[in-house]
Amino acid sequence: MSAPDVPVTGPRAGAALAQLVGQALAQAHSDSGSEDVAEVEAITEAMVRLLIGAPLHSDGKLTIVSLAAEAGLRRNKLTHKHTGLKDLFYALVKARDPLPEVESETAQARAAKQQQDLARVRAERDDLRTQLQLMARIVQVLEIENHQLKEINRNLRDQLAGHTAVPDLTRRRRT
Q1: pLDDT of 86 higher than 70
Q2: Which of 20, 77, 141, 160 is at a distance of 20 to 30 A from 65, taking alpha carbons?
Q3: Max alpha carbon distance in the chain (Å)?
Q4: What's the rounded Cα separation, in Å, for the pair 82 and 67?
Q5: What contacts 40, CB < 8 A, 6 or more positions away?
Q6: According to the 3-state scheme, what is the secondary structure of 149-162?
Q7: pLDDT in tens, 15-65
């Protein structure tokens, strides 16, 4: 295997680095057996495909599960046997170029809109709290007035109960 002619800068730098490390590891494992070499090469090729966004056998997500599926291996090969490649993959994923300006501007605009929405909702909440307190005071005043009216009604009934005789207004007094 010869060194790739891929530049180690730009958006494919992670893929080129994975390829270089994979070749070095494959050469180092060549003494231990062809199975290790084949696994390292499969993992390296899968890393390159995932990092450049061209998966063949997985969903394309930058996870160990997707990497194992892309390499055609079980996940425990990465988590127990080839931990160095797993760590390299995580480092390459973390070191990927940041979002392009257009996407970050969109994210910033979305964040600004969410902040405005949050401020509006908080203002509505505060307004509703104020209205709730006002309504509670109104209910208290109405309860007090209702109690007072019941007292007045009770007093009037008691006064009318003492006047059992109703005067005959049809008779007129003659003078």
Answers
A1: yes
A2: 20
A3: 144
A4: 12
A5: 22, 25, 26, 29, 82, 85
A6: HHHHHHHHHHHHHC
A7: 677 777 767 666 666 666 667 778 888 888 888 888 888 888 888 888 889
Cβ-defined contacts of 59-66 (< 8 Å, 24+): 62/89, 62/93, 64/89, 64/90
Q: Which of 78, 74, 22 is nearest to 48 (CA)?
A: 22
144-151 long-range contacts, CB within 8 A, separation 24+: none
Distance (Å, rounded) from C-alpha 45 to C-alpha 137? Answer: 72
Rounded-to-integer distance, Cα 80 and Cα 98, Å: 30
Burial 113-141 (b: 16+ CB within 10 A, else e): eeeeeeeeeeeeeeeeeeeeeeeeeeeee
